[in-house]
Each structure stands twice: as C-alpha cells, then as structure tokens.
Write a structure and sequence with these properties.
2 copies of one chain form a homodimer.
Chain A: H1 13-21, H2 26-35, H3 40-47, H4 51-63, E1 67-70, E2 73-76, H5 78-81, H6 84-98, E3 105-109, E4 135-139, H7 149-155, E5 158-159
Chain A binds a DNA duplex (30 and 30 nucleotides) through helix 3 and helix 4.
Chain lengths: 168, 168
DNA sequence: GCCTCCAGGTTCGGTCACTGAACCGACGCT
DNA sequence: AGCGTCGGTTCAGTGACCGAACCTGGAGGC
C-alpha cells in the first residue's frame, strides 16, 4: 500500500479525500450509485471495468463508510451522499470544457421541473444546492451512446438515489 | 493511452473531466497552484512525487488548457480556476470524515476577514461561492507538519493564486 | 437428493504506469 | 573555466490495472 494509493506526507484534507475517492473508477462508481445502480453486476455492465477492480473499490468504499452493503446491494451512506456537489461540479466542468456536443443528461428539480443551474441551485425556487434526493435525471435523446441493459434502464427519467428503475 | 488514463465507452462529462484531472497527483498539483505554487521545483519540493510524473502531469494540464506555462511558471487558466469549488469541497469532505484533528488551513474572505462556510459562501457578506481571488489562506499553527521550504513559505497568510509569498 | 443456472466474486498471467535514483543540458555566477 | 541550480529526461524495478478463466453459494427445477 506504499505505492499508488496513499499520499503519505501530504497532511491535507484534500489528499485524505483523494485517498478514498481519487483512484481510477471510484468516482464513476459513485456517479452510478447516485443514478440508482446498486448491484455488483449492474455496476459491471455499465462501467466495463475489470471485475477485480470493481470488487476492490466497492470493498474499500464500504470500509471508508461511503457505501453500505446490505442484501447484495451497495447504497450511498450519508457521507457518500455528501459527495454529490463534487460529482455534479465535475460533470459541469467536464461538460463546459471537454464535451462539445452538449450534455448527455439533464438534472431537474423534481418539485418545480426546471433544470438546476451550473452551481447546483434552482433559481425559480430560490433553493441553493438542491440535494440529490430532490433531483431527477433526464437523458438527452440520442446522446447516451451506451447500449447495455443498465444504460437502457437508466435512460428513463428517475429520481437520484432511487434504485434502478426497470429490471427485466 | 489505452490503459489507465481514459474511460473510453463512458460517454459522460464526469468521465471526460476525470480523464483530465482524475489521475494520481493531478488534483494536488492544482491545489498547490491555487495556493500560489508556480515553479517546477516548488511543486516538486511540496508534493514529493517523482519528477517524471510531475513533468508529465504539468504537460498534460497545459495541453488540456488547465495551466499555462510562461517564463518557467505554471499558472491556472480561467478553466483551471473554475476547478476551485471542486478542490474546496473535496477538502471539506475529507476534513469532515477523515481528518479527526481538525483542519490544517482556514480560508478567509479577504474583504471581511471571516472564514467561509462549508459550501464556500461568506454568510456575513451574503456572497455565494466566494471566488478564489477573494480568499486568503491561513495555516492553523502546529497543524501543517511538512517542513520543506515551500511549505514554510505557504504558511504565511496570503491570497489564493498569488505567487508563493516568500522566496529565500 | 441432484442437476443447472446465475450473481458475485477470486485467481492468474501479461501489460502498463508509477517510483526513485541517476543522468543531462541550459543558464547564471565567480 | 568551473560550479550550482533549474527543469527536465532516462532507466530498471515494482505494483496496479487489464481481460479471461475459474470458483462458490444460493435459487429453481425435477
């Protein structure tokens, strides 16, 4: 564990955070958890990362208190749900600078139906930092190019953190 | 580049962002850039990461438009400065859950002298999302355990993005 | 009971990125 | 010329990531 994972010598909260969520695939796992993915095989189908890596990451996320495992389902803890602003702002930043074709997903304030702004607020409602439980994911037609069963299920509009909508 | 760096198949802004800032050390480089570090040797002294890795990361960050290189100094571009909320919230999250001893640094709204809140706002001034240029870093005495020249220089209170305050 | 299927992993070579130390060239100073 | 520093590059060794194959425990059928 002396190589590749930790940032010994960096006595810094940012480094501590990155030791937990900074490894390859980890933030994409958390993204999918917000979108409602809960089961090992569903993460696997949607991420196509090696099974061993997924297994390891899920385990360390559970150990770090970001996820809990119950009855074969991984769900975000309160600590994990606090990562929402980071996940959202990363997506905003990536969208602004590195995806010319526009967004693949739009996040809508469930109570009023308007998309939230780049800061994560709902201007009409005056709600700053809309929590993930009050958000719906809408997929922009033709923009999500993935075609696994999980991606298809995630395409129907649904609330964040709710379990994967349709299961065949 | 087929392994380890990109997330081919993830047609997602978050994945795009992580391809740029998601690699090991990258976000710590950006953190230091916000704190005023600009020169290769200063990043090196403060991060103790391999020179080759630092060299590579700085290069890809310049290529991605996050940093610019002029006269041997790396500075954050506008796009790079937009990463501030992410860096700040990562630090907040890491501090809340993984550093029991309390913060090593406090960020103060320069205009009024009060520390900003966990969301990055200044409640007394009513300023939401205080921009990095309006923030001062104050180091909590006895909490920053590093003792390289750069760490010492960074300990004196200074504004974000201003070049390294004292140079011996 | 026994067989089959499937979800949820673990194991196993091979490859690639990270690591630390050594080396290199350009520049400034004496 | 000789020395020091800055900003890298090169290089052998090692650990993490990769994909594919294999294992295991429980559910369902017969």
């Amino acid at each position: 564990m002396a190589l590749g994972k930790d940032y010994a010598g960096q006595n810094c909260s940012i480094a501590r955070a990155l030791e937990v969520v900074g490894e390859r695939w980890t933030l994409l796992i958390i993204r999918d958890a917000f979108f409602g993915v809960r089961r090992f095989s569903d993460f696997l189908a949607h991420l196509d990362c090696p099974r061993a890596v997924l297994s390891g990451r899920l385990q360390t996320l559970v150990e770090s208190g970001v996820l809990t495992k119950r009855l074969g389902e991984y769900t975000l803890t309160e600590s994990g749900r606090e990562l929402w602003p980071i996940v959202y702002m990363l997506g905003q930043w990536g969208g602004r600078h590195f995806s010319a074709d526009g967004p693949t997903r739009v996040l809508v304030h469930a109570e009023c139906g308007t998309p939230i702004d780049p800061a994560g607020d709902c201007p009409p409602c005056g709600v700053p930092g809309v929590p993930p439980t009050d958000l719906e994911v809408h997929t922009v037609p033709g923009r999500d190019l993935r075609d696994d069963p999980v991606a298809r299920a995630l395409r129907s509009p649904h609330r964040l953190l709710e379990p994967l909508p349709v299961r065949p």
